[in-house]
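User: hey, got a sec? need P-loop containing nucleoside triphosphate hydrolase folded
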Amino acid sequence: MVSLMIDQLKHLPSIIKGGLLSSSQRPEEATETLRKLKEGIIKVLFVSPERLLNLEFLSMFRLSLSVSLVVVDEAHCVSEWSHNFRPSYMRLKASMLFSELKAECILAMTATATTMTLEAVMSALEIPSTNLIQKSTNLIQLNYLQNISHLQNTFKL
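Assistant: Yep! Here you go:
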């Protein structure tokens, strides 16, 4: 999960200032990230569900910070594996995110969800079915197009 957050942070457009809070950070790194967050420098913060549910972390938002958008990445974890793998995902509820973080919007994203999983995620995060945007990608076709592109570039030499 941390490596995914690091990768997403690295790929943010340079105009968007981002930060990361994880258990693998040194204390001084976390302190610096929190300072930038409080000062409004950081616009996108990557944080684990465990940290998000930490009462000390949440207290910052009660005082002065508010969140425009909460993104729950790997949202299938809210239902599929959270019972044993990441129980904190099960504790993510829209009502908590709205009240504790003063979130204006919640976006749940996953690339691996069955219909049953989607329904469970939408129920847990209190997302109405009218807000579901479902897009299928054909990974075989994407890989095929990549290979064709590679071959075309090879023959241009």
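Quick note: The chain has two domains: 1-47, 62-157. Let me know if you need anything else on P-loop containing nucleoside triphosphate hydrolase.
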